[in-house]
Design brief:
Elements lengths: L8 H23 L21 H28 L2 H30 L14 H21 L4 H25 L17 H4 L5 H33 L6
Helix pairs in contact: 1-7, 2-3, 2-5, 2-7, 3-4, 3-5, 3-7, 4-5
């Protein structure tokens, strides 16, 4: 029976603590000292809801990073048949769904209080919103597929193939297609890019926010992988793949 790899706890704790400190500074930069030292001017329509840029957009960057990690490990599953790679692919895909849902939630709230406040609606099937929702559903289907296959080896390989297909759709659904359609989102057909309507000072918080949330993904992803490896060890199931 093979021994599953272990997580370097010292490195994990060091990075985890660093990520929490980093994100704390991001939040402070967005709402606390950012209100004095990094104060942004009033932006037409968005006003100070523009601060949601520090949270909404990084969620999608983080989701894309998670799908990339998941796809890489699925590719390695097909190459090696290593069950640890399957665990990593599954954990990263789960985090992709979580951050995708957070991206949808922050987007819905943002749209409600900027575009639809007079109409009192929360969802208007804007192309970018709809395609983002489809993307999350595609990754949700990955877990439905896994749950329908009992054989562990078969489950890992079929899920890996589907996961690679899902990853291919990411740039098209989250970036390419929405930019070709009429949308209220910045950067869509006929609309200026977000960089054209936001103040440059916002980048001092925006870019660190992206790094921070990707770091948070790594922390949560590593936790889930560690828990799964410990569960396999308890079940004495290490040689399944």
């Amino acid at each position: 029976m093979s021994t599953p790899p272990t997580i370097n706890l010292t490195r994990y704790r060091l990075i985890r603590n660093g990520v929490f400190v980093w994100l704390t500074l991001v939040v402070l930069g967005a709402f606390s000292f950012g209100g004095y030292l990094l104060n942004i001017p009033k932006i037409n329509i968005l006003e100070h809801t523009a601060r949601n840029l520090y949270f909404h957009v990084p969620m999608w960057f983080t989701m894309m990073a998670a799908t990339g990690v998941s796809a890489y490990h699925s590719f390695r599953v097909l190459q090696t048949g290593d069950y640890v790679r399957d665990i990593r692919a599954r954990a990263a895909a789960m985090m992709a769904v979580v951050f995708g849902l957070l991206g949808l939630l922050t987007g819905i709230v943002w749209a409600r209080f900027t575009w639809y406040v007079s109409a009192d609606i929360w969802w208007n099937f804007d192309p970018k919103q709809s395609m983002a929702a489809v993307q999350v559903l595609i990754y949700g289907a990955y877990f439905v597929l896994r749950s329908g296959i009992e054989d562990t080896r078969k489950q890992a390989r079929i899920a890996a193939v589907y996961n690679l297909f899902a990853f291919v759709t990411v740039p098209f659904l989250l970036y390419v297609l929405p930019r070709q359609l009429e949308s209220l989102h910045p950067g869509a057909d006929g609309n200026p890019a977000f960089s054209d309507i936001t103040h440059p000072v916002m980048r001092l918080v925006f870019y660190p926010a992206i790094i921070g949330f990707i770091g948070l993904f790594w922390v949560l992803y590593t936790q889930r992988v560690r828990l799964a490896l410990l569960q396999r060890r308890v079940d004495h199931d290490d040689d399944l793949l």
